[in-house]
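Colleagues,

For the teaching module next term, I've prepared a clean inverse folding example: a structure given as tokens, and then the sequence designed for it. I'd like students to try predicting residues themselves before seeing the answer, so please don't circulate the second half yet.
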């Protein structure tokens, strides 16, 4: 059953007028506007420097989609073309905000223009953030005696990506990057090995840390503040995993990472319990600690998908990747809980208004 087949009841709510703000060619601070002032200016169709706001006059639609790495966040803006259209060029930096007239618009995306599509009467502007830069970067490079966090920090610096939170994670005697895949995929893989995930904040800064349930940024009530809901309950791909690494760094000291060992038991660890077993050979893992951390992380990530879902709601700009939401009063008992957000799509159009589609999963295992 699809998401649109699970519409909630039509309990009436107070109508709210969506507003937006667009800052191009620099952040709000560079333009001399605070977040509230920029939001009000776009809502009223004026700017504080005098005259009409060309973005308010010409923007037809806006879509912002964000997810956990290696998903590359993207923003798309549709603009009507007239002689007064706001100028947009490749590599222009900017920020997008959405909200309602009874509250300040909230920042939902910061990035740079990656593509401009010129049509008849309509121009589409596509933007990406640091995820795009990391996805484009492919390098051959090795790291020796560095933590996962130190590796991520160096990779972010290579791509000129700002960071917000980068936790240390496990120590790697040796780690190799191949240009056979993007730096962003390497970064996501290092995250999986440490029970971490990576994503970008609305301010365009990289986070590399464990997913942890926090206070809900929004509560969605069935029949009142949601438009549609779909809950998925599925068996994980595997219940237990055995990971085998390589090298003797764990038993013979850090400098022994390149040694080959006859008995791999010292670099073999298992996690989880159940009939669905999986064996993984990971020669890049050179210590018993790394192997154990990876095994635990893989089982944890597999269990998250046991209860997942999607929720369509009136625009919710406070919902971001990595945040916690709460669902209440839903007829499905599994739905009435707190969930971690893994994917968000904010959509604004002149005709249909502002909606938010949220992909989520649970950190807790579902009942047997």
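(Answer key — instructors only)
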């Amino acid at each position: 059953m699809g998401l649109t087949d699970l519409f909630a009841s039509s309990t009436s709510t107070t109508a709210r007028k969506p507003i937006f703000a667009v800052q191009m060619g620099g952040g709000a601070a560079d333009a001399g506007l605070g977040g509230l002032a920029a939001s009000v200016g776009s809502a009223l169709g004026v700017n504080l420097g005098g005259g009409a706001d060309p973005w308010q006059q010409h923007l037809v639609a806006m879509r912002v989609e964000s997810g956990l790495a290696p998903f590359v966040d993207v923003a798309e803006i549709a603009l009507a073309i007239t002689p007064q259209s706001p100028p947009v060029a490749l590599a222009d930096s900017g920020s997008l905000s959405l909200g309602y007239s009874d509250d300040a618009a909230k920042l939902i995306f910061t990035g740079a223009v990656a593509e401009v599509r010129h049509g008849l009467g309509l121009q589409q502007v596509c933007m990406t953030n640091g995820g795009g830069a990391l996805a484009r970067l492919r390098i051959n490079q090795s790291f020796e005696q560095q933590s996962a966090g130190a590796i991520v920090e160096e990779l972010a610096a290579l791509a000129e990506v700002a960071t917000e939170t980068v936790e240390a994670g496990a120590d790697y005697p040796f780690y190799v990057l191949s240009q056979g895949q993007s730096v962003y995929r390497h970064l996501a893989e290092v995250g999986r090995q440490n029970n971490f995930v990576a994503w970008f904040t609305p301010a365009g800064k990289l986070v590399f840390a464990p997913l942890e349930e926090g206070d809900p940024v929004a509560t969605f009530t069935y029949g009142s503040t949601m438009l549609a809901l779909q809950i998925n309950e599925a068996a994980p791909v595997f219940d237990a995993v055995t990971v085998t690494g390589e090298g003797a760094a764990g038993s013979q000291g850090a400098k022994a990472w390149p040694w080959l060992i006859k008995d791999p038991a010292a670099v073999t660890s298992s996690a989880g319990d159940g009939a669905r077993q999986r064996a993984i050979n990971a020669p890049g893992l050179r210590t018993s600690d790394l192997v154990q951390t990876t095994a635990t992380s893989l089982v944890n990530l597999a269990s998250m998908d046991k209860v997942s879902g999607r929720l369509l709601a009136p625009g919710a700009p406070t919902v971001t990747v990595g945040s916690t939401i709460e669902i209440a009063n839903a007829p499905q008992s599994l739905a009435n809980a707190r969930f971690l957000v893994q994917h968000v799509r904010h959509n604004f159009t002149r005709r249909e208004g502002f909606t938010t589609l949220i992909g989520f999963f649970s950190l807790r295992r579902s009942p047997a």
